[in-house]
Amino acid sequence: MAAFRIGLLGHGTVGSAFEQLLTERASDVERLTGRAPEIVGVLTRSRGEFDDILDRSELIVELIGGVDAAHDYVRRALEAGRHVVTANKQLLSRHGEELWSLAREGGVALGFEAAVAGVVPVVRVLRESLAGARIERIHGIVNGTTNFILSEMTRSGCDYQEALAQAQRLGFAEADPVDDVGGADAAAKMAILARLAFGVPVHIDDVRYEGITAITSDDIAFAHELGLSLKLIGTAERLPEGISVRVHPTFLYGGHPLASVSGAFNAVTVESDAITEITMSGPGAGGSQTASAVLGDVVAAITGARALAPALEPLPIVEDVMSAFYLHLEVDDRPGVLAQIAQLLGDAGASIKSVVQRGLGERAQLMMVTHPLAHSRLEIALAAIARLEHVRSPPRAISVIDEEFV
Description:
The protein is an alpha/beta fold. The chain has helices at 13-33, 50-55, 68-79, 89-106, 122-129, 144-156, 160-169, 178-181, 184-198, 217-225, 287-302, 337-347, 375-386, and strands at residues 4-9, 37-43, 59-62, 83-86, 110-111, 135-141, 208-209, 228-239, 242-253, 265-272, 276-283, 322-331, 352-358, 364-370, 373-374, 396-401.
């Protein structure tokens, strides 16, 4: 049988790793699918020409990154009736509906397992194994860079800048890590997962996100006293009013399945009435890990993977969600200060679950965890607390997931 012809766009860390892996595994793929894959052209800034590669290929692997050029190449490939595999989460979070529609119209595959969570097969599980389940919520550690940084801060007690420098030395963080540490990378991935989970169009602009750059070693140390660990968590959940998709630093209790995921690993929990909860974890994105996920999509395309189903009608995006919160306050240790704070929280509808105080005199610090309340109500309470005479700086708040699966 004739070889299966692949055009490769991009030959950086992931592209070169994919080419090497494909060479090593070609005989295994042939035994599994009946066709031996081979790369018939590579496009880089100084090598190859896209139209020529497209003419000679049955499938295009897009690993150039960015959005504009990648969008043009992938769109043209799908319009020409070629299968496409991409690891480009920013592309899909902005133009996914257009590209999935083109794939359906052309009867070709658009594989994107490598765009989310490294080698963790969450895309395939949502598309296939759980296709008949009504997904209620997904929590994900979907950025290995931030998980490594927070794990290092927890392990050694170092500050954010020291942990980032260590991540860069070990190759877990880019020289310019802004998309990772600022939350944009995770937000793009959660937009894709929300589309898969709920079957409705979700654009990255629908995702409210923040990163980890403001996290301090004190946050981690103090929260440890409350039995919490800190992760950058992406959440996609179905609510009575619509859906919420968000990314933010979050504290977890020890019984949550994501609490123990450390280093550059990714993990995703999926919750549904039919399955209760399942967790998938594995190495985050890296050259070899991403290449492995790309190859899995190539094999699926050869064997006849189906296109993603059309999106349903959009659901409203819910901004004001309920959450428990960790609060960090710097106060003067004076009689009645804690009572004033508790009163203002109570006026906003918040009750306090636990409190830790450190220090005395003018350098006292209060750390507390509230029971769940709406984010808007918390903001009202924090603004009032900041105006108290003996509160020395604006209170800091970090979300807490209070569910535990034990």
